[in-house]
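quick one before i forget lol
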Amino acid sequence: MWNTHISKLFHALCLKGTTVTFFKMSSSRSLSNVLIYKGEGAKEENVEQLFKQISRYVSPNKYNIKTISPKETKQGAWRSSTALYVIGGGYDLGFITALGDEGTIKIRDYVRTGGRYLGICAGAYFACDRIEFDKGGPQQVCGDRILKFFPGVCVGPVHGPYNYNIKVSARAVPLQFTDPHWNPKQSISLKGYFNGGGMFLPQDLFNKCSITRDPESYDQDLSDDVDDKIRQEIKDRHVLGVNAETGNKQVKNLNDQQTGTIKDILCHFSEVKGKPLAAITCKVGEGLAVLSAVHLEMDSPSLNKQDKFLQPIITQLSPYDGEQERCFGSLLHHAGLDILSS
């Protein structure tokens, strides 16, 4: 019956002198794309791990997982076929340079019109109204951001100092994760892989709080094969926190451009002063952004066992691999993906 209708329509158009062009639909057209940003600012190992981990959670018959370049992002053709746009760890100044206003606004408008965004670590900083990274320190990066999915300031690194080149700054940090969609609703205690992420301070809290900084103990090897600079970094370890009672009360208003609103609080830094937010979801127009300061895509088997700075972290993370898996699945579920049942 369908073929008969097509045949009649074809002959009718031909009689009217209309040129008829047939398009061959590619096999991937029926799939919803999950796009992982790959370009300046994105660390290759983080891109690869996101690709690997997301592939474990979703059906290849439903989602086409692939990387996207800054150039492709700027062109914008991806938006109509994309279920989720992902930016992982690295450095957000690289994203700004590579994407520029054009690419960043493409992402922003995609989310505002119903799209989904997952930002982890640097990808989460990039998605906030403003960031303050190592404020007053040698690596200071402070400023407003264009996406503005989170209505506040991302302050970090929560555990410092940060090292861009080696894993001396990595931690296994205590977390408390709660998913309102879990039935029954429950909270999970775990340790998650952390390296440079920030804490999400809603604007009203940021306006009235002070940021604390306390020395942090270390369990890293300080043997002779650790050079003096790295040894000093380890000795200078510190942790930021929040004191809501001793702020300077200097009110900073949100930027004039529209920001998102917090929808769900998923995770706290459970042993950081003030227990600040570590993972959240934000309603952005008709879309949603899921932001995590912690690398919940990283489980202990994914870390390099030959790296002396990661060895103690692997030992600490290993007992929580099951919890990590469940929590990362939660992030993907909140980001709108259909997750395979375990």
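fyi The radius of gyration is 22 Å.
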